[in-house]
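Exercise 7. Predict the structure of MFS transporter from Micromonospora sonneratiae.
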Amino acid sequence: MYLSTTRSTDAARPAGTVARAVPPTVLGLGMVSLVTDVSAEMVTAVLPLYLVYGVGAGFLQLGMIEGLYATATAVLRVAGGYVADRLGRPKAVATVGYALSAVAKLGLPVAGGSLAGLGAVLTVDRAGKGIRTGPRDAMITMAAPADRLGRAFGVHRAMDTIGAMLGPLAAAALVTLAVGYDTVFVTSFSLGTVGVLILLFFVRVPPAVTSPRHRVAPRVALSVLNRPPVRRTWLAAGLLGLFTVGDMVLYVAIQQRAALPTAVLPLLPLATAVTFLAAAAPVGRLADRWGRWRVFLAGHGLLLVAYLLVGFTAIGWPIAVLALGLHGLFYAATDGVLMAHVGPLIPEPLRATGLAAVQTVQALARAAGAVGFGAALQVAAPQWAFAGLAVVLGLAIIVGALPRHQGDTP
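Solution. The predicted structure, encoded as tokens:
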């Protein structure tokens, strides 16, 4: 049995009778993301513990690995989106990306304690994520009515976050059982393979999405970035991305500032994920009503507060949990909301390319930010590093809030 949906189904119904249920395509892709995120977050949860307390990496090395993570994702985002648009086969392209990430997990045991080897394997893993992200988000955008895109992305990201919650728990359980990191990595590969199979056999995209496309040169496809509303969006999103801390760096900073046991480090992402899960769908509905760009900026404001808490308070368990909760709200207000905002601004035949290009700008900016802040923590006291970050992030939010043209917000 296939999970399927078409936009024409909604169009054929009388006004006011369009079903409010989330389209099955969105739910199917959400299930794929859920299983895949269990796989991915198992690795992500143990990496800081492994790198810092096993291999001996510092904040600079963590920042560089996070930057490599984001850069590898960015490199193939546009390529994946363009190929999906060119072939009219977003599901096939997304499947390649998911499969590449799953297979990469088998390289982690081979890399062992080599930072260069780990970096290479993680680059392949993130490249797979880059390939799949644009086509997947394009399928969501095409499957849901334009006025409920925030809700659709919120539901998808909520399901994704369930996986982000289960991943650290599974990793912590395996580490507690002292089965070794290799078992974590192989289990991650197995779950990633399950995600690929769900996508192949239980998700169908609408015929309108899979129809053949006219050949469009890459330069023409990327010209959507020059449309004024799209250009303002990616410029602002890139500026804000420069001043966001990589997740691994933030988790290690919180663990060390709060003097938490090292064994707790793999569980810190759980606090972020719980908040994200609870808030993703409600925040998506709020974005549809209040304005997606406003919610996107508000999310960065919450992140700024989290930075101030980590840098300037007598941090302990309560402040650590609060900062992680704000971190989760930041993701709920920005991840899917940005795609819901910019998606309707991009013509449907070029939507996967356009969405991937916007995400690429954001990912490259975050890569630079991760390396820069990791270096700052390496040479400066955390208070000064987080203070400087909060100041520049606040300025970036103000720039993003400057008056926009009427057509900029769908």
